[in-house]
């Protein structure tokens, strides 16, 4: 048992930013827009670091698939307590078309290469809301999966998990190695403190290409069009009853 | 209107300020300006203490709070004819329903309550002009009101002054994207202006915790400071023009958008910070800075205030031109944030916390400067812990630790608020001295604020209103401030609560001249009476 955990972290547009659709409707504007780590990935990193602090696992490896800037996201994970990082370099058109299927193939390959015992992911990314990567990765590896986890505890070579589902809370016990996806209430991610930020600058990030892992990242999906949701019509406040009657008549309702 | 008659009887005897304990205003009225030795005429601190203590003794030697409301001045009362006139020009916007008027009668701190029965909501400058012209001829007092977020009781009526709300004057009139000059009506909410500008790659030159409710007219009338003053300066510099309505209804159009204009006296400067007592601001043109491409927020912990000051010096040296805010809070503030708002401490417990914000045009360049500064601060042990945020969500979270202290205090009990300007190195000494002075008479004594601007927010809480505690705090805090030649109100203004303390920070000749200007611009004194200028000034 390697005691190694792989944590996937995705670089997404910061959730506080107002999203704008590109004028040619092929996607959203990403140039010059603030990006940050997917909030659910942060929760996954926090859980991994907690397990390491409890001495239940030995090493946390942060993984991100994307262009050069993905390394910043890995650095954030390192500042939170991950030990080293792997940057899977995907850029240009390949990056635009990168989806859960390709990422899960990459993660599966890395899990085998690194002899990982646990894969921790966020339940979904806030840009595509796919909620598929964790499930697909588990299927490709034929590992058990604990998705929407709100509580995780290791018991020997098994994992006790509480899942948040529509009907309430589900308690399950799964074998390791396994894939776990983090839900909102699993934990509160820590702030990266200065001493750790300084230490993180010295930690290693290795860059690999998908081809090195034997993964083909061509997409089988084609985005036809991206458009904004229809504008919600604003309501109108009127000061007097007479105004209200006038407006109703104008709108043809009376 | 039976309701009006009933209330008229009650008005004469009702207590206005909920934190006063006596209405011996006649005694304060007999103290004339010449009785006071201004702290600046004599350098002896003993004389300062002696003369200013006179402020707090009534003619019969009894203790009177100078923040207590004075007796009602002989303005006329609102009649049915008056209401008919208002309804003619403001159909549907003349509010007399007590439930609807009530929120405008009470300040945000819920510490003062007026008994106005009329709330007017004009939409245009012309309407404001008609209202004031009429009120001036009828000798009706008027209380201009913006977002009602002021902290010195200046935004709500003391008695039955008509409330003139600018809330419906919320149109943006023009924005010049080359010069960055924004022109808008006075009732625009600060946060809405920020959103509007951010879409156009600009920001407002001021930012404060009350941004979701405060209006730009009120900000200008009170010369609001805020969190960005360190970088962009005060409203006296950023406001390029104002449109005002004077007490007699005359519209004064000084709404220039020019950066430079030396033609005659700069009248708008008189109205910036005049707290609604010289004229009603109806439109503002303000110079806005470009939105920074890179914003970083750093939250640091220091063991001593001396280290905090050294960190400030290091910060100015190494971050210099990208520094946009330098704020501090003490461990007591953090305790209140943890307890009442459940906001966790992002770093380990320290006696002092600093919030530093940098704003620049190049993320890589700024990150490098910040990294160098942080490394230096850590290796020289000026700072014992800290964290950095570059993402909007985390930046907001770190800022809320500073911005929500005021809110946390309201949950701790009745709050006595002091907003003091001091020489930077003496800022925290006042907090330490106040703690020692009060002992366990107070529940919490906290210090926080714009340390970069030399501005301390000292707050004391008690489970409920406590006149004995107030007597212990005042005049101690004002005398302490005066002895350092500080300001007893750095940015909150004087309003109702601090009007009589003006002499702690201004010479009597200066105050007398202020009175002359007020008399010239508002001979009947109808604009925001009982506020800003001390009671003993005869008009």
Automatic annotation (TrEMBL), chain A:
Pfam families, sorted: ETF
Glycoprotein listed as a keyword: no
InterPro entries in the record: ETF_a/b_N, ETF_b, ETF_beta_N, Rossmann-like_a/b/a_fold
An example molecular function term from Gene Ontology annotations: electron transfer activity
Localization per record: Mitochondrion matrix
Alphabetically ordered keywords of this record: Electron transport, Mitochondrion, Transport
Range of residues in the leader sequence: none
Example GO biological process: amino acid catabolic process
Keyword Kinase carried by entry: no
Family statement drawn from the similarity comment of this UniProt entry: Belongs to the ETF beta-subunit/FixA family.
The name this protein goes by in its record: Electron transfer flavoprotein subunit beta
Species of provenance: Pundamilia nyererei
Native organism taxonomy: Eukaryota, Metazoa, Chordata, Craniata, Vertebrata
Gene name of the encoded protein: etfb
From TrEMBL, chain B:
GO cellular component: mitochondrion
Cofactor or coenzyme needed: FAD
Catalysed reaction, written as an equation: (R)-malate + A = oxaloacetate + AH2
Localization per Swiss-Prot or TrEMBL: Mitochondrion
Record keywords: FAD, Flavoprotein, Metal-binding, Mitochondrion, Oxidoreductase, Transit peptide, Zinc
EC number: 1.1.99.39
First-listed, main subcellular location of the protein, grouped into a coarse class: mitochondrion
GO process annotations (BP): malate metabolic process
Domain FAD-binding PCMH-type: 111-291
SUPFAM superfamilies assigned: FAD-binding/transporter-associated domain-like, FAD-linked oxidases, C-terminal domain
GO MF annotation terms: (R)-2-hydroxyglutarate dehydrogenase activity; FAD binding; metal ion binding
Function: Catalyzes the oxidation of D-2-hydroxyglutarate (D-2-HG) to alpha-ketoglutarate. Also catalyzes the oxidation of other D-2-hydroxyacids, such as D-malate (D-MAL) and D-lactate (D-LAC). Exhibits high activities towards D-2-HG and D-MAL but a very weak activity towards D-LAC.
Family membership noted in the UniProt record: Belongs to the FAD-binding oxidoreductase/transferase type 4 family.
The protein's name: D-2-hydroxyglutarate dehydrogenase, mitochondrial
Taxonomic placement: Eukaryota, Metazoa, Chordata, Craniata, Vertebrata
